[in-house]
Write a structure and sequence with these properties.
Elements lengths: L2 E5 L9 E7 L8 H8 L3 H7 L9 E3 L10 E8 L6 H17 L4 E5 L10 H15 L19 E5 L4 H26 L7 H15 L2 E5 L1 H7 L2 H7 L7 E7 L8 E12 L8 H4 L7 H16 L4 E11 L11 E3 L5 E3 L7 H14 L2 E8 L4 H6 L4 E5 L2 H14 L3 E3 L4 H7 L7 E2 L7 H13 L4 E5 L5 E2 L9 E2 L4 H13 L5
Parallel strand pairs: 1-6, 2-4, 2-5, 5-6, 9-10, 9-13, 12-16, 13-17, 14-15
Antiparallel strand pairs: 3-4, 7-8, 8-10, 11-12, 14-17, 18-19
Helix pairs in contact: 3-4, 4-5, 5-10, 6-10, 8-11, 10-16, 11-15, 13-16, 14-15
This protein binds ligand BES and zinc ion (ZN) (2 copies).
């Protein structure tokens, strides 16, 4: 989407596709009659005959084409005007995006006027259009030599509106920034593990740092050994690939204070280690760096929009392999925090990686912590594949986070973390903690383990094992990586730049 145009007169627009949103009872909408008169007086007739549907997300091509500058016209039903939210609009535009990809359109114009209601401004619509279309048109390029990947992209988006041109354009730009960042994260997750190694992920982070002027530090094995990062090093022990701790700093203010720490699990492949995964359970574990991708995606948005909030991103990256050198159940390791850990299960590796990454973030000045990880199969058992599981130790911080997730439409559900859960994490004959207290409710043990390292710093844990990868096409994109939490993390940082949390 290189060009964004705002144009009041649709007769002046040249686009491959014109999209017209039609809510229920469009005749009640200010501007509809004028639109009908200037576009096609047959619209009421088509609506009456059911050739144009007002049902939410129902897309139909224009029943009869007239001589126009665009090749196609799509009508999309928007359902009840009152029920329209930004999230529903995003879904509708993503559905349009998929259709645009199917017909290989490179330009699209959208008539927005009737979409608005008292909760939605024209800017909201423009934002949702750019974001939804960006998300909906995504396709991973892949490596097929007879590539059937979509090779055309939407170059130009026109918003048909007489509202303030600059404001609408700005809203579209932000929507595009959000969609592009999600799609970048999706690309990372979709990449195969022989290509996306920890070193490659660090290279990618360096590119981000260069582009957005972030401070960057990448620790390799030697630096980790010097610092005593025994937890991430243990996970890496069986690998021929170097581990990387990737640290990006976005300094919005002179003083490095009031810092949000975004911490991502970047396990580029999870075989389970000696607690080996069954063969069906292993396929797909290239996506075990979804948390890292979410953090990198959020950082891209932060780099573009530059909110007034200091942010540190810390990603622990390694694969979890088997070899004569690999760590094993019964090992006792010493983490960066000094806490010792009895390894009961080498497949519970994410929490080990996060333990050191969270400690590093704290030591580097994080005042708030959010860790994001494809951490447990348990979250899928508990919540299914469409809800991210959360834990927290801070009500106000979590409340603010939930507001961000409502804005983005990314569903998050909190689970409890009780004293008796903590007791089980701390139960070991030989060490301070154990990394696998049991399978009953084990999403809580996974996240709770990370919480031991957050300590009293306000902290939120997000388990995206169910939501990071989609088994089938969904509202906002195709099968495969979803880029979940990119938008919510960035939205939270934007919100926290504008508000003070209450104690
Ligand atoms: N990477 C997995 C979790 C996972 C499962 C991600 C399914 C995506 C889809 C994690 O490292 C893991 O293996 N967790 C174990 C923990 C158990 C050994 C306590 C699990 O959930 O089974
Ligand atoms: Zn694992
Ligand atoms: Zn894992």
């Amino acid at each position: 989407m290189k060009t964004i145009i705002v144009e009041p007169n649709f007769n002046k627009v040249e686009a491959d596709v014109l999209v017209i949103g039609v809510p229920e009872h469009p005749e009640n909408i200010v501007g509809w009659d004028g639109f009908v008169n200037s576009f096609s007086t047959r619209l009421p007739e088509w609506l009456k005959a059911g050739d144009i549907k007002t049902t939410f997300n129902k897309i139909v091509p224009m029943p009869a084409m007239e001589e126009r500058d665009y090749k196609r016209v799509f009508f999309i039903g928007l359902g009840a005007q009152k029920a329209l939210t930004e999230d529903r609009l995003r879904q509708a535009f993503a559905a349009i995006g998929k259709e645009l990809a199917n017909v290989k359109a490179t330009s699209v114009a959208i008539w927005t006027a009737p979409f608005t209601n008292d909760k939605l401004t024209c800017e909201d619509v423009a934002f949702a259009a750019a974001e939804g279309i960006g998300l909906g048109t995504y396709k991973f390029a892949g490596y097929r030599t007879d590539s059937n990947a979509r090779d055309v992209a939407i170059e130009a988006l026109t918003i048909l509106s007489s509202s303030d041109e600059d404001e609408l354009k700005a809203a579209c730009e932000v929507g595009k920034v959000y969609a592009d960042a999600v799609n970048e994260a999706r690309n990372l997750v979709n990449m195969p593990p022989n290509i996306l190694t920890a070193t490659k992920m660090a290279d990618y982070a360096r590119e981000l740092a260069e582009k957005y002027d972030f401070d960057i530090e990448v620790l390799g094995k030697k630096e980790m050994e010097e610092l005593g990062m025994g937890a991430i090093l243990a996970v890496n022990q069986g690998s021929v690939e170097e581990p990387k701790l990737i640290v990006l700093k976005y300094a919005a203010t002179e003083q490095w204070e009031d810092v949000i720490g975004l911490v991502g699990k970047g396990v580029t492949y999870d075989t389970g280690g000696y607690s080996l995964k069954p063969r069906e359970g292993m396929v797909g574990m290239k996506g075990d760096m979804g948390g890292a991708a979410a953090v990198l995606g959020a950082m891209a948005i932060i780099g573009e929009l530059r909110p007034q909030k200091n942010v540190i991103a810390v990603i622990g990256s390694t694969d979890n392999m088997v070899s004569g050198d690999a760590f094993k159940p019964d090992d006792v390791i010493t983490s960066l925090s000094g806490k010792t850990i009895e390894v009961l299960n080498t497949d519970a590796e994410g929490r080990l990686v996060l333990a050191d990454a969270v400690t590093y973030a704290k030591q580097a000045g994080a005042d708030y912590l959010i860790d994001v990880a494809t951490l447990t199969g348990g979250v899928i058992v508990a919540l299914g594949n469409d809800k991210t599981g959360a834990l927290t130790n801070d009500e106000a911080f979590f409340e603010e986070f939930m507001q961000a997730s409502i804005e983005t439409g990314e569903f998050v559900w909190r689970l409890p973390l009780t004293e008796s859960d903590k007791k089980r994490i701390r139960k070991s004959d030989v060490a301070d903690l154990n990394n696998s207290p049991g399978r009953d409710g084990h999403m809580i043990f996974g996240g709770g383990f990370v919480g031991e390292f957050a300590g009293t710093t306000p902290w939120i844990h997000l388990d995206i094992a169910g939501t990071s990868d989609a088994a089938a096409a969904h509202d906002l994109g195709p099968k495969g990586a979803t880029g979940v939490m990119v938008r919510t993390l960035a939205t939270l940082v934007e919100r926290m730049a504008d508000t003070e949390l209450e104690d």
